[in-house]
C-alpha cells in the first residue's frame, strides 16, 4: 500500500556554505522524494522528471506560483496570465502556434553566421582589456543583442533592454517585496517597449520576424495583451537563461584547463559537446514545477490531485542511472540523452532551444579562437536557487 504525502520527508536544513548541489544531494539521501515549506513535492531522478512532465496527468503551472507568494496583480501577474510559458491546452496551442514556424530549426540554423559575427564583434572590443566581469561584458549583452535583433529592437537600445530583462526575470521566482517591486517596474517598461516596437511594424510591415509574427496573429484568437506577452516572453526566456548557461559553461571550462585545451585545439569538434555538458553539470534552471491532474503513485507515495510536483534539475542531470561519473565535468562524455532534459519536454519543450544552442556554441568558438589564454581572475561563478531560473554571481576573467 502506498504511503501518504505526510510520510514524505521535508527538505533538510541548509548548512551554511553548502552548494546547491550539496544541498540537493543531502535531500536525495533522505529518500526518493522531499517536501519544501511551500508544499511542493520534489523528486530527484531523470525517470521522475520524464513522468512528471507528462501532460496526461500533470499540467504547467499557470498563476498558482504567484498566488502562493501572495501576488494577485501587477505587471508580472499580467505577464504570466497572458504568456505561453504559463498556459495549457488550447490556450497554450493558440499562443505557441504562431511562433513555432518562426523558430523552426532550419530558420534558426540560417541565423548561425550572423550570431557568430555578433559574438566576434563583441569579443573583439574587449580583447586585451585585462580583467572584466564576464557576465556584464559578454554573457549578458550577447544573447540580449541576438534576441533584440530578432524582434527588431534598435542596437542602441540593447543596454537598456537588457537591464529591464535581467531585472524583470527575478519576478518569475519567489522573491522579496523589494525585488517584486523592481521586477514589476521593469516588466511594465518591457511591455511598453514591446508595444512601441509593434506599432510601426503594423503600420509599415517589413520582411522580418516581427512583421511575420504580427501577420500570423492579426485575425485572432490572441488578445493584444497576449500578443505583447508572447514577444516579452521571447525576450525574457531568450536572454536570461542563455546568459546563465554561457557563464556556467565557461566557468567550468576554465576550472578544468584540460577541457578548455580540448576546445581550443578543435572548437568545431568540441563546441557542441561542451555546450551539452555545461547545460548538464550546473544548469541555469533549478526545476520545472507542475500540478497533478489526478492521483498518482510516485516512488511508493500516493500524490493527490492538485499537488505541486517538481524534479530537481540539479540531481536529475547528475542521475547515476543515466550518467557515468555524474559529478565529473567531462565534455567528452557520450551518455547524454537524445533530448537534453534542461529544455523540458512534451508540448512545453523550450521553443528557443535551437537558438540557445547555436548562441552558446558560437560564443565558445569565438572565445577559444580570439582569447585562447582567457582565465579566471577570482572565484568562479556561483549559481544559486532550486526553482525556475537560478541567480548567478559575477565572474571576473582576464581576457
TrEMBL record:
Species whose genome carries this gene: Sedimentitalea todarodis
Name of the protein in its database record: Cytochrome P450
InterPro entries registered for this protein in UniProt: Cyt_P450, Cyt_P450_B, Cyt_P450_CS, Cyt_P450_sf
Sequence similarity: Belongs to the cytochrome P450 family.
PANTHER family given in the database record: CYTOCHROME P450 YJIB-RELATED, P450, PUTATIVE (EUROFUNG)-RELATED
One Pfam short name: p450
Lineage, top ranks: Bacteria, Pseudomonadati, Pseudomonadota, Alphaproteobacteria, Rhodobacterales
Record keywords: Heme, Iron, Metal-binding, Monooxygenase, Oxidoreductase
Amino acid at each position: 500500500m502506498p504511503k501518504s504525502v505526510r510520510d514524505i520527508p521535508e527538505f533538510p536544513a541548509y548548512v551554511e556554505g553548502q552548494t546547491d548541489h550539496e544541498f540537493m544531494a543531502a535531500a536525495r539521501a533522505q529518500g526518493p522524494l522531499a517536501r519544501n515549506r511551500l508544499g511542493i513535492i520534489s523528486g530527484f531522478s531523470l525517470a521522475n522528471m520524464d513522468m512528471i512532465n507528462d501532460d496526461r496527468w500533470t499540467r504547467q503551472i499557470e498563476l498558482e506560483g504567484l498566488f502562493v507568494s501572495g501576488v494577485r496583480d501587477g505587471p508580472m501577474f499580467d505577464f504570466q496570465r497572458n504568456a505561453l510559458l504559463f498556459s495549457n491546452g488550447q490556450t497554450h496551442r493558440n499562443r505557441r502556434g504562431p511562433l513555432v514556424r518562426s523558430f523552426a530549426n532550419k530558420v534558426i540554423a540560417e541565423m548561425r553566421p550572423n550570431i557568430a559575427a555578433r559574438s566576434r564583434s563583441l569579443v573583439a572590443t574587449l580583447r586585451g582589456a585585462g580583467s572584466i566581469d564576464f557576465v556584464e561584458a559578454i554573457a549578458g549583452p550577447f544573447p540580449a543583442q541576438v534576441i533584440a535583433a530578432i524582434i527588431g529592437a534598435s542596437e542602441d537600445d540593447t543596454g537598456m533592454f537588457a537591464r529591464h530583462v535581467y531585472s524583470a526575470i527575478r519576478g518569475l521566482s519567489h522573491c522579496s517585496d523589494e525585488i517584486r517591486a523592481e521586477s514589476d517596474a521593469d516588466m511594465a517598461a518591457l511591455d511598453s517597449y514591446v508595444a512601441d516596437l509593434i506599432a510601426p511594424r503594423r503600420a509599415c510591415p517589413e520582411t522580418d520576424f516581427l512583421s511575420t509574427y504580427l501577420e500570423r496573429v492579426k485575425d485572432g484568437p490572441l488578445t493584444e495583451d497576449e500578443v505583447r506577452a508572447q514577444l516579452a516572453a521571447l525576450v525574457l526566456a531568450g536572454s536570461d537563461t542563455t546568459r546563465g548557461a554561457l557563464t556556467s559553461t565557461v566557468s567550468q571550462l576554465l576550472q578544468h584547463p584540460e577541457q578548455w585545451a580540448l576546445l581550443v585545439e578543435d572548437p568545431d569538434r568540441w563546441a557542441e559537446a561542451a555546450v551539452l555538458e555545461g547545460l548538464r553539470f550546473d544548469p541555469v534552471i533549478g526545476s520545472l514545477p507542475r500540478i497533478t491532474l489526478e492521483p498518482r503513485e510516485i516512488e511508493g507515495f500516493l500524490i493527490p490531485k492538485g499537488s505541486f510536483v517538481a524534479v530537481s534539475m540539479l540531481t536529475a542531470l547528475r542521475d547515476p542511472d543515466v550518467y557515468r561519473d555524474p559529478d565529473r565535468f567531462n565534455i567528452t562524455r557520450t551518455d547524454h540523452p537524445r533530448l537534453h532534459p534542461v529544455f523540458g519536454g512534451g508540448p512545453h519543450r523550450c521553443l528557443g532551444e535551437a537558438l540557445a544552442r547555436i548562441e552558446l556554441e558560437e560564443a565558445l568558438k569565438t572565445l577559444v579562437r580570439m582569447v585562447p589564454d582567457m582565465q579566471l581572475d577570482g572565484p568562479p561563478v556561483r549559481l544559486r536557487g532550486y526553482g525556475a531560473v537560478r541567480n548567478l554571481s559575477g565572474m571576473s576573467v582576464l581576457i
